[in-house]
């Protein structure tokens, strides 16, 4: 089923659209999100950075007629958030089981803890997959090479987190994201809107 974007913002002379505001929001959001390691206020900064990036992707998608960056980035966040919530519930239930005592209860406790860890791992990988698709889409519609590098380092960083080198790769991805928004032109030509892929096509990346 095809859902083309129904309307576009006014274009500048030459068929270009102004994305200067979205560029700046994405740049500031990427820098703020990178400061998430700061004690006490890190989580707030990360959330603020995420919101700014999300707004930037939504604006760019609207103006360029392609909602994939916004849609996939939001999907990735929702999946990771849902995974954290489900894992927290599982782990809390493990403590409840542990309070009952007994050998059988202890085995159940370990099983629930491992189940919670498994949920987190699956959610992070799946969420990162959709965020990777978001940055790949940004590369396709803007031509800024750093968006592609952001996607690549993000994906390999998540897959190698277990051996710690992944943290370095994720840092590199965050830096490339800053460079990508920095190198994004203020004016860009609008391309033809892409088609919405339905569930009939498996390559639609789990379209919701």
Q: Which characteristics define this entry?
A:
208 residues, elongated, disordered N terminus, mainly alpha, 70% helix
Give the averaged pLDDT, no decimals. Answer: 83
Going by helix content, strand content and strand pairing, the class is mainly alpha
Number of strands: 2
Which parts are unreliable, with pLDDT below 50 for 5 consecutive residues or more? 1-11, 192-204
Protein described:
- This protein has a two-stranded antiparallel sheet with strand order 1-2.
- The protein has one domain (16-190).
- It has 208 residues and is mainly alpha-helical.
- It has 6 helices and 2 strands; from the N terminus they run E-H-H-H-H-H-H-E.
Quick rundown:
The chain is mainly α and 208 residues long. It is built from six helices and two strands; from the N terminus they run βααααααβ. The protein has one domain (16-190).
Helix and strand arrangement:
Elements lengths: L15 E3 L1 H15 L7 H23 L3 H33 L2 H40 L2 H15 L5 H19 L3 E3 L19
Helix pairs in contact: 1-2, 1-6, 2-3, 3-4, 4-5, 5-6
């Amino acid at each position: 089923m095809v859902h083309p974007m129904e309307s576009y913002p006014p274009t500048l002379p030459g068929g270009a659209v102004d994305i200067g505001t979205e560029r700046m929001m994405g740049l500031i959001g990427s820098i703020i999100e990178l400061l998430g390691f700061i004690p006490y206020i890190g989580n707030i900064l990360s959330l603020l950075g995420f919101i700014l990036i999300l707004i930037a992707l939504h604006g760019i998608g609207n103006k360029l007629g392609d909602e994939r960056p916004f849609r996939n980035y939001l999907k990735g966040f929702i999946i990771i958030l849902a995974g954290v919530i489900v894992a927290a519930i599982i782990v809390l239930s493990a403590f409840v089981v542990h309070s009952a005592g007994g050998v059988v209860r202890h085995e159940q406790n370990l099983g629930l803890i491992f189940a919670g860890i498994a949920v987190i791992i699956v959610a992070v990988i799946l969420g990162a997959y959709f965020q990777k698709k978001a940055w790949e889409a940004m590369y396709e519609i803007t031509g800024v090479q750093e968006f592609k590098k952001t996607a690549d380092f993000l994906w390999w960083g998540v897959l190698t987190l277990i051996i710690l080198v992944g943290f370095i790769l994720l840092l590199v991805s965050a830096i490339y994201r800053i460079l990508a928004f920095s190198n994004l032109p203020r004016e860009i030509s609008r391309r033809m809107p892409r088609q919405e892929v339905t569930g009939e096509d498996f390559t639609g990346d789990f379209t919701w």
